[in-house]
Amino acid sequence: TVTGVPTWELYDDFSFGSLDFEKWETLAWGGGEIPLILNGRVFFSGSQNTNSWVQGTLKEEYLAYYNNPEIRELGPDSHSILSFRNANFQNTHGVEFELSVSSTYQNAETGIGLFCYDEYEPNYGFFLDAWKSSGDGKLKLEFGIIGDDVLPDDQRFEYISDGWGYIDFIEIQYDTSYKIAYLMKNDTLYFYLDGVEVGQISYDSSRPHSVAAFRGMNEDGDNFAANIDNVKILQDSYEPSLPTPPASPESLLGY
Prior knowledge:
The protein is mainly β and about 260 residues long. The chain has two helices and 16 strands. It has helices at about 60-65, 250-255, and strands at about 5-10, 25-30, 35-40, 40-45, 80-85, 90-100, 110-115, 125-130, 140-145, 160, 165-170, 180-185, 190-195, 195-200, 210-220, 225-235. The radius of gyration is 18 Å and the shape is globular. The two termini are about 30 Å apart. Residues about 240-255 have low confidence and may be disordered.
């Protein structure tokens, strides 16, 4: 079968004033607001002053997952989620996006980023996330993987917590846009910040992911605000079989 080299494609630049629901699904709870387009970017927010009902196009699916259609609210952690409508990334080898966190609220336990994982046990997946912890109080980018193969004292990671393995932490600034990307190649997962590789780890690229979503949140239900823009995806130009990648990940990314 003739296959094409994976190519970067603009998935959405959010320039039309409203979300394209052929591309996206939405979900919010615990005080999180439904993501919306504001000034040409997707705006994620949450507030102590809003209701905590489950909202969005994925509401019924989410409630069914918890097997309780009577659930109307969850908390106290507020979530604002924008999910790829087709989360099956079998022919997707990378995602690139721009991220910024607003300085309007600088509360601890706030995050915004991309998560790709299987929502069913053992929850294999990975993440590219900006997070302000209550520890050192700094806003940092976090890159890593999730799953039951993340074991205590695993030397591949800088930090491990409950099956989450963190490969790298990079301090960033509020109100500043950063270009974040991942690339999957030959069972290796690469992470990039502004075109520079910041980490890599072995990862079974055949694992399916039932969830691929941008998540804004605050674990304490405090106010938060952040933006995502210019989402690109690296996909096969022909299907069904995977192509043979070029020699280096950098050549794929075009950085």
